[in-house]
């Protein structure tokens, strides 16, 4: 999942593309890496027996290649048959582990043409997953406390409180990671890291499959190293020329469409907690969740469901239809005064909290990366206007009425500067890229895929559906098209819709 939206806030934004600039340095690690087992990263988790793992050293600051180093976790599953080359995969986020993703893909695709013809490779970007140092800003207890904040009071005092919560989080990131690491966490550095991994693999060119934020990383890499791209598939894209607030409005429009699709499907049942009148779906939803601002609902595990977690759980369910029954169950719990625990579990899934109360670092990395990947306005008036726009784009997510006050996003208060400005992408060359976009994708709206395909002068494959990303998710039309491109660079027919 790309995760893409921050709980209880209207201003969640996916990252925009970094245009890398400056000198190109040789990777810090010249010697071939030592490959071994993957237990160092995956522990006892099941993984295909042919998987091998290693680390690749990269400078924390590419402008100082002899300085402090980070260690990137890398997994490789060799092709089981006649080999075409390496297929590097990034699952998105930013902050999701490519090591985990490729470990799962390796088993699922072992007997497929993809697994037979490509080494499947994933590396965890700096600060992410199993790479070290791992970016962490807060303890598990601090994360629980953060989630308990409704972030819904847009009075002057409420806005001041919300911004103080954001500042405290930002300061903890700075204290824990230091200014150098935090300033170099973004996609500009990750694109150079990706090329260091390519060099460590001994490959002249890469094939690449990027989902969600992985399209940002792939596009940044293709701009910086166009000659090193063999074939690139970008699924679930964003428009790199869009500013952060406009990107958020686009994204929230996508979530509203997905909410409408969910509500229409729910209304087929007479027991739907949103009722059966389409004009009342949003109002009925607010009747269920808005009281949680003042009083969380009791859950069987004793933790309780607050307003921010109800919003988070709802958004998480909108990523795909398979989660809709759990959203209905949670909303029915609120309606009937029974246990709405499925909404809490959906929120836990979004925040990557396990049953023991431990959090992965994905959300800390998500925020830190997006904050240096785009310039966020610091003028409070810009965020008041953003509140107006986002309420119109996604009314199901807006609490109360427009007040004329709104908190600035965490990234507007970030302690290190951004490293890029919005800019359109450039093509790495004809025939090297295809873009896949889902018509009712909640997190990366279809129109953004159309824009990226235009900018890259690449074919667009349109998938009719309500879900986030689609490649190798079981749709025959999409999967055969992508496989033909990766295998033989076969271009999809113009205007293909699946």
Automatic annotation (TrEMBL):
GO molecular function, one term: hydrolase activity
Alphabetical UniProt keywords: Hydrolase, Signal
Signal peptide (UniProt feature, chain positions): 1-30
InterPro entries: AB_hydrolase_1 (IPR000073), AB_hydrolase_fold (IPR029058), Serine_prot/Carboxylest_S33 (IPR051601)
Domain AB hydrolase-1: 86-474
Pfam annotation, one family: Abhydrolase_1
PANTHER family the UniProt entry points to: 2-SUCCINYL-6-HYDROXY-2,4-CYCLOHEXADIENE-1-CARBOXYLATE SYNTHASE, TRIPEPTIDYL AMINOPEPTIDASE
Family membership noted in the UniProt record: Belongs to the peptidase S33 family.
Name of the protein described by the UniProt record: Hydrolase
Organism: Mycobacterium adipatum
């Amino acid at each position: 999942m790309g995760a893409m939206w921050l709980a209880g806030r209207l201003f969640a934004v996916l990252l925009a593309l970094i245009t890398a600039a400056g000198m190109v340095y040789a990777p810090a690690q010249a010697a071939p890496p030592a490959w071994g087992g993957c237990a160092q990263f995956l522990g006892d988790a099941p993984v295909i027996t042919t998987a091998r793992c290693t680390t690749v050293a990269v400078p924390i600051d590419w402008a100082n290649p002899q300085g402090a180093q980070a260690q990137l976790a890398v997994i490789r599953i060799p092709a089981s048959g006649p080999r075409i080359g390496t297929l590097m995969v990034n699952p998105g986020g930013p902050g999701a582990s490519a090591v985990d993703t490729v470990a799962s893909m390796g088993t699922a695709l072992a007997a497929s043409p993809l697994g037979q013809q490509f080494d499947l490779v994933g590396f965890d970007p700096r600060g992410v997953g199993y790479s070290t140092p791992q970016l962490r800003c807060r303890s598990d207890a601090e994360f629980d406390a953060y989630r308990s904040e409704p972030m819904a009071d847009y009075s002057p005092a409420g806005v001041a409180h919300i911004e103080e919560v954001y500042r405290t989080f930002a300061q903890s990131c700075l204290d824990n990671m230091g200014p150098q690491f935090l300033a170099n966490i973004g996609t500009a550095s990750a694109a150079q890291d990706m090329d260091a991994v390519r060099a460590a693999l001994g490959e002249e060119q890469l094939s690449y499959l990027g989902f969600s934020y992985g399209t940002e990383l792939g596009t940044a890499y293709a701009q910086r190293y166009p000659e090193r791209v063999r074939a690139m598939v970008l699924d679930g894209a964003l428009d790199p020329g869009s500013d952060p607030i406009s990107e958020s409005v686009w994204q929230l429009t996508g979530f509203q469409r997905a909410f409408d699709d969910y509500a229409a499907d729910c209304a087929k049942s007479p027991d739907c907690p949103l009722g059966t009148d389409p004009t009342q779906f949003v109002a009925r939803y607010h009747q269920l969740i808005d009281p949680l601002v003042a009083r969380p609902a009791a859950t069987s595990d004793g933790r309780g469901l607050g307003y921010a977690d109800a919003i988070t759980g709802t958004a998480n369910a909108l990523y795909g239809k398979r989660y809709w029954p759990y959203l209905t169950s949670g909303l029915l719990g609120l309606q009937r005064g029974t246990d709405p625990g499925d909404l809490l579990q959906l929120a836990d899934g979004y925040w990557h909290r396990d049953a023991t109360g431990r959090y992965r670092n994905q959300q800390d990395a998500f925020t830190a990366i997006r904050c240096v990947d785009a310039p966020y306005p610091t003028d409070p008036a810009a965020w008041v206007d953003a509140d107006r726009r986002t309420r119109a784009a996604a009314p199901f997510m807006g609490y109360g009425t427009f007040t004329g006050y709104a908190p600035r996003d965490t990234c507007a208060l970030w302690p290190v500067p951004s490293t890029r400005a919005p800019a359109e992408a450039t093509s790495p060359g004809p025939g090297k890229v295809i873009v896949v976009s889902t018509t009712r994708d909640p997190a990366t709206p279809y129109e953004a895929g159309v824009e990226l395909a235009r900018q890259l002068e690449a074919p667009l494959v349109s998938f009719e559906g309500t879900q986030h990303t689609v490649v190798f998710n079981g749709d025959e039309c999409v999967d055969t098209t992508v496989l033909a491109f990766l295998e033989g660079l076969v271009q999809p027919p113009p205007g293909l819709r699946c």
